[in-house]
């Protein structure tokens, strides 16, 4: 097998608006950790594969589709062979529009597209023979963030130590004659830098990569199904991000030490596009009345800011107007444009899902997929918002009740899990692979 790697800096200018937090009051004032495009190219006698990691919150499906077309054309590989994955950093530029903050930064996206192409082509041209190995190691820097309040049962963004959470990092090691490429996978929302930070940052992922690069490794990373997983409330700020990054880097090296050479030379990728339906709409009068309720979006220490309240009000009313318009269409709300991919590299498997998938939902969706290890990644291809499980949709909270007021129009269908599972299993069978 051959592998190539390249990375290109895509850090926006200081002064650029940052995405991710409606309660952030300042444009960017400095750089904590640079934003990068990281491209990994793999090839054997039958197949080529390109994985592009982006230090951004996400990219809209239309941009993702254009990039897949562009990369397929310029690199001479199939569209199915291209996998785009966003880290979901909350300290990057406006690559997706967010109501209350503003539109996407079109000028930046033009530059980003050019840099993606540059990194991808350079990675292909860098290809060299490698041996591959997979390893895992324990890591606990995250917590389930859907905290249930004991007084009234409301779900708020906080710490829920008893909820589903990530416990391991998974690492693909591609060792060449004079250098090693690492792909690592871990699920945690990258917002150690929160709304009170005005620093551009790739957050803990970028710090982990920097620590490993100082030891001579090339690095690319995939965020897991972290829709309901984030940093603990008491781990906050640039230094916390650095410490978490260092812990991640150390765990990656432990995983490398646990790895053994994988003699399985399989390299396969399959992808599928489909529409993911929304849940049935509530009565419009009820939806409008709900706008008078207090938000569960921002932290208590931020909710008293007049600018924040103005942004919330503006975003909610803009959303409600768009929702009414969409509901009046003959076919109602259009399905969310989803793309999934499955990648087999040696004995390991990557299942790449769209949106902010909840942790246990991702595990169940891929339950019949074999792979040692099995990496269920999220935030891949186009950003479509949150994908909670049916139980969490009923329980409420920010992800199911409010997040679509900023991106999208309405919560995803409770059938999303079964739909994703159907497409994942169908792709798996089309690859000739055996289910568990």
What can you see in these coordinates?
The mean pLDDT is 96. The protein is 30% helix and 26% strand. The chain has one domain. It is globular. The chain is built from eleven helices and 21 strands. With 436 residues, it is α/β, with parallel strands linked by helices. The longest helix has 22 residues, at 306-327. It has helices at 61-75, 106-125, 203-213, 238-258, 284-290, 300-303, 306-327, 359-365, 390-395, 398-401, 416-430, and strands at residues 2-9, 30-31, 36-43, 48-54, 82-86, 128-129, 131-138, 143-148, 155-160, 168-175, 180-186, 199-200, 217-223, 229-230, 260-261, 267-276, 336-345, 348-352, 356-357, 374-377, 386-387. A five-stranded mixed beta sheet has the order 5-4-3-1-6, with helices on one face. A five-stranded mixed beta sheet has the order 13-11-10-7-15. Strands 16-17-18-20 form a four-stranded mixed beta sheet, covered by helices on one side. Helix 8 (359-365) runs parallel beside helix 11. The relative contact order is 0.16.
């Amino acid at each position: 097998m051959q592998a190539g790697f390249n990375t290109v800096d895509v850090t926006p200018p200081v002064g650029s608006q940052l995405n991710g937090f409606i309660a952030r009051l300042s444009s960017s004032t400095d750089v904590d950790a640079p934003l990068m495009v990281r491209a990994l190219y793999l090839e054997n006698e039958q197949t080529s594969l390109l994985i592009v990691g982006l230090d951004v919150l996400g990219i809209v499906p239309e941009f993702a589709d254009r990039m897949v077309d562009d990369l397929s054309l310029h690199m001479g590989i199939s569209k199915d062979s291209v996998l785009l994955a966003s880290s979901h950093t909350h300290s990057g530029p406006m690559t997706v529009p967010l109501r209350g903050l503003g539109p996407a930064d079109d000028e930046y996206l033009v530059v980003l597209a050019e840099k993606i192409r540059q990194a991808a082509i350079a990675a292909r041209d860098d290809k060299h023979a490698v041996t591959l190995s997979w390893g895992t190691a324990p890591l606990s820097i995250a917590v389930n963030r859907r905290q249930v309040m004991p007084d009234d049962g409301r779900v708020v963004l906080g710490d829920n130590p008893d909820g589903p959470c990530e416990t391991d990092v998974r690492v693909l090691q591609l060792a060449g004659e004079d250098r090693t490429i690492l792909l690592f996978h871990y699920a945690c929302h990258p917002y150690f830098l929160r709304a009170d930070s005005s620093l551009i940052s790739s957050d803990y992922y970028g710090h982990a990569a920097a620590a490993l690069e100082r030891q001579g490794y090339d690095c690319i990373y995939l965020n897991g199904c972290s829709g309901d997983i984030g940093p603990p409330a008491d781990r906050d700020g640039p230094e916390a991000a650095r410490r978490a990054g260092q812990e991640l880097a150390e765990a990656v090296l432990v995983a490398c030490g646990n790895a053994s050479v994988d003699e399985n030379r399989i390299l396969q990728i399959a992808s599928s596009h489909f529409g993911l339906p929304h849940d049935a709409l509530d009565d419009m009068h009820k939806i409008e009345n709900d706008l008078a309720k207090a938000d569960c979006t921002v932290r208590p220490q931020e909710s008293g800011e007049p600018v924040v309240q103005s942004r919330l009000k503006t975003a909610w009313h803009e959303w409600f107007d768009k929702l009414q318009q969409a509901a009046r269409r003959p076919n109602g709300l259009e399905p969310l444009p989803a793309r999934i991919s499955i990648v087999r590299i040696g004995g390991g498997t990557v299942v790449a899902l769209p949106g902010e998938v909840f942790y246990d939902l991702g595990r169940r969706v891929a339950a019949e997929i074999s792979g040692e290890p099995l990496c269920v990644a999220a935030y891949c291809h186009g950003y479509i918002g949150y994908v909670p499980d049916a139980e969490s949709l009923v329980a409420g909270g920010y992800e199911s009740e409010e997040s679509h007021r900023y991106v999208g129009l309405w919560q995803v269908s409770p059938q999303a899990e079964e739909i994703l599972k159907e497409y994942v299993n169908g792709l798996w069978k089309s690859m000739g692979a055996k289910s568990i």
